[in-house]
Design brief:
The chain is of the alpha+beta class and 270 residues long. The protein has 6 helices and 15 strands. It has a single domain, classed as Jelly Rolls, CATH 2.60.120.620. It has helices at 10-19, 30-45, 76-79, 87-100, 245-248, 253-269; strands at 21-24, 55-57, 71-74, 105-114, 122-125, 135-136, 139-145, 156-158, 170-172, 182-184, 195-197, 204-208, 213-215, 224-232, 236-237. The longest helix is centred in the C-terminal third of the chain and has 17 residues, at 253-269. Bound molecules: 2-oxoglutaric acid. Residues 112, 122, 127, 141, 143, 154, 213, 215, 226, 228 line the site of 2-oxoglutaric acid.
Amino acid sequence: MPFPTITVSDEQVAFFHANGFLSIDRITTDEEIERIRSTYDEMFARRAGREEGMEFDLAGTDEEDVVATLPQILDPLRYAPALKNTLYEANALAVSKRLLGPEAVFQGSHAILKPAHYGSETPWHQDEAYWSPDFDYNALGVWMPLQDATIENGCMQFIPGSHRLDILPHHHVGYNPKIHALEVDDGAADLSGAVACPLFPAGATFHFSRTLHYAGPNRTETPRRAFIFGFGTPPRRRKTSRDLYWQRETTTYAAQKRATVSARQQAQKT
Ligand SMILES: O=C(O)CCC(=O)C(=O)O
């Protein structure tokens, strides 16, 4: 892993803790962005991870013959090793340690593509609405675009201070449990003070795992690509599980494929 080349100031750390998000102008070099972008496009073109349920349409029901409007790849480093050991990751980890504490470690990655012209919105949500209800978290997401990110193509937007809220009630988009994306229930939060964070390529945003966030549809001529990391201190097991009832309703094709892979792996172990 390269040595980190950036840090954040005490003022930026204080801003993150007060507001639940932080935007920075540069997290890696333009050369690295170019390299990542060609690997990223190749990975989405071959729909890496589709058979295992790791590539799917976030915003739709993900049938084979329907065009995906918000394709996502989970764990892209597994499918494209060229995405490993980047300066982006080194800098994202260094900043995450400043924001969360020195015990923060890498916890995962994903990639979300909003295709040109018809890329869907990513609805308002808290990341923890997707996570295991058995743990408490001290975690954040780092979001890096591979081209300009604007309001028109779907840059990140945040509700300041929402990281202090509990996990709010969510539902699958359209109340359709075949759709992976979750959306906070209507009226559960005041979304009026949203702050949009446009970025140049190689900029990045950081947000706490409870911060309400959204990214609009892509109505521009070019794809909006985002490469996302998660970092956190070790999750702490709760005495009682939270009741994130919307997770029990999930019936996506991708979740079924992942369950089949996991059952096969268990059977091979025994
Ligand atoms: O890239 C997007 O559209 C949304 C990203 C997001 O929700 C996240 O990084 O937590």
